[in-house]
Specification:
Rossmann fold, Serine Threonine Protein Phosphatase 5, Tetratricopeptide repeat, 3 domains, two-stranded antiparallel ribbon, elongated
Length: 562
């Protein structure tokens, strides 16, 4: 019973109070009858007093007892169903760079280094509910798995599927991971402090000077660097699955490889960036990371606190008010021979007025909606922000707030609100939020150059892809998706690789944000949308293949590919 009621003991008190109210009303009626009998003969007294004074009190006892019972249940705080709880908290921008090289399959940690790293990453994410996270997987090169986001579900999904097959090039390059993590954080303009957390066994085959140079650049950009080690210095073999079953990894000379944790590069990177190195022997790495980042300045943002049961007290409070209103109306009727006091009539009318008012969630229009329709977007954004501060964190308000910010020229501030709206279970709201999120990244990519532009276009591709999954019949989203994908490839896309691309799509009015409650046109079927998404995946693989054939990256020293 405890999870379904905030105050369970009120359920026991409610019927007890109802019986007490009934007893008091009956006692009062009997006392009144005795006093009336003492006045004189019953017929004479009946002509002198209202009929209500001698009428049975049973209807009123029933009504007021029901009022007491319903009010008691409402006070107990009944809850059922679920809703997402949104709280305002301070959060930082953090990028997790996770080592997905083959050496992370070594079994000197249980079950292996990779799974141990995933466990620590999940614990760190769970302990940081209001922070924004980005994920990077790296081996011989690094790949952005997700841009900075508050969607912990998406982060968990990428963590679950992380393995060495995610990164095409073997080896380990800490310098590339630090550089790409720094670039990803520099695209954020939230005002929060930024941190880069590198999780690796440290077995990288590159000059220490490259790692130190990348770490110094991160420090000069105001980014806190934390490196976390995994494995043991004694090392372990690396199991591989082949056609003949599971074997052990061998080097170019046929010798069995023993992978060892080498902390020197991790320590050098942390030292160069004035950061923190967390040793592989530390037992609670997630807690150590949080302590290392405790001094970060956190920007206030709306954070999801999880799902909880929805309050339902209003379902019992409304019957209590109706019973009270019925008692008031019956009192006037019982006293029809006399005019009801003005105060009683006013109370009944006021109660009817209250019951007739719409709740704020169903009001015809809010101040922000009116300002938005008047094209006063900056004022509309402020009005929506006030609604959120007052506790209305619904996806509709978050979406309208983000859209108003875009049209007011403050697109970077709209990202977080649109990410919140994109978590909605309503497909229309989710589609619109993702469409506008993709628009922000698409415009950002047009302004930037080089790797920063590619990352922005990649984020736009991801947003439009999710929008098409929510609404596969929208032609505008498909057009902008194609536009962002071609721009990403032209900027050196393919998840960290590059490649040439064919004809660029033309500019189109479709690359505009979705405004409040307007339906974009489109007639793309669900099957066609699925074909587009599958084709995009194949195109990305082909681009990566051409990149590898025409512009082979450096081979790790001494042929080491783990």
């Amino acid at each position: 019973m405890m999870p379904y009621f905030d105050i369970p003991w009120a359920l026991v008190a409610a019927p007890v109070l109802a019986v007490a109210v009934a007893a008091l009303l009956m006692v009062a009626f009997r006392k009144r009858r005795r006093r009336l009998t003492a006045l004189g003969q019953e017929g004479i007294v009946a002509r002198l007093i209202p009929v209500a004074a001698t009428r049975s009190p049973i209807p009123r006892i029933i009504l007021l007892s029901l009022v007491t019972v319903f009010a008691g249940i409402a006070y107990a705080g009944p809850r059922w169903g679920t809703e997402r709880a949104i709280v305002r908290a301070g959060g930082a921008d953090i990028v997790l760079a996770l080592d997905a090289s083959l050496s992370m399959r070594a079994t000197d940690e249980r079950p292996d280094r990779l799974e141990r790293m995933k466990q620590e990453a999940r614990r760190f994410l769970a302990g940081s509910p209001s922070d924004r996270f980005g994920l990077i997987a790296f081996a011989g090169r690094s790949y952005i798995l997700t841009p900075l986001t508050v969607d912990k579900g998406a982060l968990e999904l990428y963590l679950d599927n992380l393995d060495p097959s995610v990164v095409g090039q073997a080896g380990s390059s800490l310098a590339r991971a630090i550089r790409q993590g720094t670039d990803l954080l520099l695209t954020s303009r939230s005002g929060s402090d930024r941190a880069l957390v590198i999780m690796s066994d440290g077995e990288a085959f590159e000059p220490e000077s490259d790692v130190v140079e990348a770490a110094k650049r991160a420090a000069e950009s105001g980014i806190t660097l934390v490196t976390v080690g995994f494995g043991t210095t004694a090392g372990a073999t690396i199991p591989e699955r082949g056609a003949g079953g599971q074997t052990l990894k061998r080097d170019e000379n046929g010798e069995i490889v023993v992978s060892r944790h080498t902390p020197e590069l991790l320590e050098a990177a942390a030292r160069a960036a004035n950061g923190v190195y967390i040793a592989a022997a530390a037992t609670d790495k997630a807690a150590n990371i949080r302590r290392s980042l405790a001094t970060l300045r956190r920007q206030g943002r709306m954070a999801q606190a999880g799902a909880e049961r929805r309050p339902q007290f209003q379902l019992f409070l409304l019957p209590a008010l109706l019973c009270l209103l019925a008692d008031t109306l019956l009192a006037e009727r019982r006293g029809a021979r006399r005019r009801a006091p003005a105060a009683a009539r006013t109370a009944a009318a006021a109660l009817l007025f209250v019951l007739a008012l719409p709740s704020p969630a169903h009001a015809a229009g809010t101040e922000g909606d009116e300002l938005f329709r008047a094209r006063r977007y900056a004022e509309a954004a402020e009005a929506y922000r006030r609604e959120i501060v007052r506790g209305d964190g619904s996806p509709r308000v978050q979406y309208n707030y983000g859209t108003a910010l875009i049209l007011a020229g403050r697109a970077d501030e709209a990202i977080e609100s649109l990410e919140r709206a994109a978590l909605s279970t309503d497909l229309e709201t989710r589609y619109r939020a993702l469409f506008n999120l993709g628009y922000i990244f698409l415009q950002r990519g047009r302004r930037l150059e080089g790797d920063a532009a590619r990352q922005a276009f990649a984020a736009a591709v991801d947003a439009y892809k999710r929008a098409l999954r929510a609404r596969p019949d929208e032609l505008d989203a498909k057009w902008n998706y194609e536009l962002a994908r071609h721009r990403e490839q032209a900027s050196g896309g393919g998840g960290g690789g590059g490649g040439e691309t064919s004809e660029q799509p033309r500019e189109d009015p479709a690359a505009q944000p979705r405004e409040a409650m307007t339906r974009p046109a489109g007639s793309l079927s669900e099957r066609q949308a699925e074909q587009i998404l599958n084709s995009a995946a194949r195109d990305e693989q082909e681009v990566q293949g051409r990149k590898q054939r025409t512009n082979q990256p450096d081979t790790p020293p001494r042929g080491k590919d783990w």
